[in-house]
Amino acid sequence: MPPFTTLLQDAAQMFLLLFAELSLLFLLISAAINRLRQTIPDHRIQALLGARQGRGYLTAALLGAITPFCSCSTIPMLRGLLDAKAGFGPTLTFLFVSPLLNPIIVGLLWVTFGSQLTLLYVLVAAGTALIASLLLSQWGFERYVITTRSEPSSCCSPRPAMAAASPSATIRGLRPASGPILRPAKTACCTAPSPAPVSTANCCDTPAPVSASNCCGAATSSAEPPSPWRAALVEAWMQYRDLLPYLLLGVVVGAFIYGFIPADWIARHAGQDNPFAILVSAVIGIPLYIRAEAVIPLASVLLGKGMGSGAVMALIIGSAGASLTELILLKSMFRAPMMLAFLSVILGMAILMGYLCQYLL
């Protein structure tokens, strides 16, 4: 075993690399998702990824398969889907599929292990993700989602609330035949006018920005709205700042495990002589954070060290599908029952793939 100082240095280098990589990915992907949501109204996302239609699940699986995201860089897209109130089941399908069936992992599996194992891997990952998402949605696990922000108030409601005025009041000199005179109730838009322009792309489907004042019939503010990309970047920075404590904790733990758990230790405890090798590999894979471009070469090395193919596949799914860093980030969005369900699905998928690979191939 290498000296402690060497292991500590490796862990520190991995921390810096992971923190820089994940921070950059999170900011870029979050900005891209925010910009996309400016152009695509939420109701269209809800129609495309609706939970009541089977095609919503298939669309989410396809979306996850074509996005080259690792387990951690999936988080910004997941947060965007939750904020847009896409179907809960399809959103979970994307969460399960995205890190496991991204083009990098599938391509490397094909080159390293051949078409037969790759096809089995794709069928197990996609099938388990679809079934688990459908069941969790039907069982009402949506109630365990943590609301990240309140619904934006709209000053463009087509039916403004009406408040009763005194009998002596008039609206433009008109009085109804009987009953109290009604006038539009003051909203936050009217009681707290702001000179800053507010985009109404989401509340009115109107691309033109309007000021808070002209919702109340006053003069339109002449201040120029910020550029769409600037607004998207500002929102991405705010999201990154909210998740920074979780990101730091996840990267610290992941880098420590990466630096102090060598491949020889994994191969020794999950070798072919261990009857519980597949289960051990699936559990070991969860704390590890292994990037997509590194997980398949590592698997090839472990095979050369005597690790069984089933245990290797369980390790791949465990590490790629639910790294500890991802779990810590998900803790800011899901409550404990949903976290446990997510972890159980990934572990179940890893164990299933391991035994199918061991006995069928």
UniProtKB/TrEMBL annotation:
Keywords, comma-separated and alphabetical: Cell membrane, Membrane, Transmembrane, Transmembrane helix
Database matches in InterPro entries: DUF318 (IPR005524), UPF0718_permease (IPR053166)
Cellular compartments annotated: Cell membrane
Classification via Pfam families: ArsP_1
Keyword Iron-sulfur listed: no
Domain of life per record: Bacteria
Membrane topology field: Multi-pass membrane protein
Cellular compartments per GO CC: plasma membrane
Residues spanning the membrane: 12-36, 57-78, 90-111, 118-141, 243-261, 273-290, 310-330, 337-356
Recorded family membership: Belongs to the UPF0718 family.
The protein's name in its UniProt record: Permease
Native species: Aeromonas simiae
